[in-house]
Design goal:
The protein has 456 residues and is mainly beta. Helices cover 9% and strands 47% of the residues. The protein has a 4-stranded antiparallel sheet with strand order 4-3-2-21, with no helix packed on it. It has a 4-stranded antiparallel sheet with strand order 5-6-7-8, with no helix packed on it. The two termini are 48 Å apart. The relative contact order is 0.12.
């Protein structure tokens, strides 16, 4: 049985509660720890490049947080100076740029290359003549493959007698760091008539998923060398997906499963299926939103952050290497500038942001202005701005940053771009940017911040 407390005790407890509440409110601007949002390890996004049923000469770019639901980043993102852009395959290289390789025409002996810093705007680089087919041959479906030793290859399908010929897969290998010089073609050792080779490597085993151009099934071959010999371990309707399929492309999911995408071109439908071991796959599932639109694409997974949690709620970000300066907005642009508790209220409010779950992915974070609560810090052409939330997927990605243990150490935090992994929120000449990470202590200091109590 519980007995009521005496009135004097109840009165005393109320006074203590009021005093504690008032003290907490008064000190909130100085010490408030606030809730902490957590992320379970690196946060992925999936970049996809495709041509479409409506055009063979314009490439579309899509993005996804889960490798299933894709949203359009940009239509007509790239048009080559001549020819087609079929079968575009995308790679993120060690220099931070995205590289594209694609089929230039139905016949001929060239493949095309383009490059982009942001995967939205692309620049034509060159057509590379592979020296195999001659004017009457066909060169199709080039795909990037980066081996475990770091070497970069393009695997393509070629016929010396044109579109009706017997295709075989070949590879060329980059002979310099900027991917501008290539070896002569080398046959993979796959018999005719196979096209659309897509390679992945697990341990010491190469896995080749490719279309049998005679039977129209996607088949599976393995080898211990890139040049073979290859053993076909899945032939005919081995996976139960049926025939009339092409353009296989694989990506690995964070839980270790593999996802394969393929085009049922006769019905203009796109599917995917999952596997834990690349030997057996589940049933195919239609790719909602893209089926009937996208054609022969690849998907590039990129991871941002390392799961470092950032305290949510009102916060100010103090520069790690310029500790008298804080992240702030001014004239709708981001800077690091001297701000303190004695600064004008307007300056302190400009240097205070509400840390909320990321607009594009709740495992990351977005920084909302406290004095303009409809505006967020986001990058645009890699300059950080304070912009009104437009509500579209591109804005959401550009306004989302993932926590990472501070590059400068000392308990600091770094913020990696969700949409462009490898680029970090940093200051340069006191201006806020999202730049590709470089080695050395200077960048580490510029890209590290202390998540501090709010200045306002």
């Amino acid at each position: 049985m519980r007995f009521p407390l005496p009135r004097a005790v109840r009165s005393f407890r109320r006074r203590v509660l009021i005093a504690v509440t008032a003290a907490f409110a008064a000190g909130a601007a100085v010490v408030a720890p606030g809730p902490v949002a957590s992320a379970a390890g690196p946060v992925p996004h999936y970049l996809m490049t495709a041509f479409t049923n409506s055009s063979e000469s314009n490439m579309y770019v899509y993005d996804s947080a889960n490798a299933t639901s894709f949203t359009q980043v940009r239509a007509n993102a790239y048009t080559p100076p001549s020819g087609l852009i079929r079968d575009p395959s995308v790679l993120r290289h060690t220099d931070g740029y995205y590289y594209l390789v694609y089929t230039t025409n139905w016949t001929g002996d060239t493949i095309g290359f383009a490059r982009s810093a942001d995967y939205v705007s692309w620049t034509f680089l060159r057509n590379v003549r592979v020296g195999l087919n001659g004017a009457t041959g066909s060169t199709w479906a080039p795909e990037w493959f980066k081996d475990s030793d770091g070497s970069v290859h393009v695997v393509f399908s070629a016929s010396t007698t044109g579109t009706a010929g017997q295709f075989r897969p070949y590879r060329i290998t980059a002979t310099n760091a900027d991917l501008s010089a290539w070896s002569s073609p080398v046959a993979l050792g796959i018999p005719a008539n196979f096209i659309d080779s897509f390679l992945v490597k697990i341990g010491g085993t190469y896995h080749n998923f490719l279309k049998n151009e005679t039977t129209k099934y996607i088949e599976h071959a393995t080898a211990t060398s890139l040049n073979g010999p290859w053993t076909f371990v899945g032939t005919g309707n081995w996976a139960g997906w049926g025939s009339g399929l092409e353009g296989p492309a694989l990506v690995r999911l964070p839980d270790g499963r593999w996802r394969i995408y393929f085009d049922q071109y006769g019905q203009r439908r796109y599917f995917y299926a999952d596997s834990t071991d690349l030997t057996s796959f589940g049933a195919k599932a239609e790719l909602a939103g893209l089926s009937g639109t996208a054609r022969h694409f690849t998907v590039l997974r990129e991871d941002s952050g390392d799961g470092t949690a950032v305290a949510t709620g009102a916060r100010s970000l103090r520069s790690a290497n310029l500790p008298d300066r804080y992240v702030r907005h001014r004239d709708n642009l981001g800077f690091v500038e001297p701000v303190s508790s004695s600064s004008a209220l307007s300056a302190r409010r400009d240097a205070t942001f509400t840390v909320v779950p990321g607009l594009a992915n709740a495992g990351c974070y977005s920084l909302r202005s406290v004095n303009f609560p409809d505006r967020y810090l986001r990058h645009y052409d890699f300059r950080v701005r304070l912009d009104t939330n437009s509500g579209d997927a591109v804005f959401a990605r550009d306004a989302t940053f993932c926590g990472r243990a501070g590059l400068a150490g000392g308990g600091s935090t770094s913020f990696e771009s969700y949409s462009h992994p490898g680029r970090y929120l940093r200051h340069l000449n006191y201006e806020l940017r999202v730049d590709w990470r470089t080695s050395g202590s200077a960048f580490a200091g510029d890209a590290s911040f202390t998540v501090a109590a709010p200045l306002a």
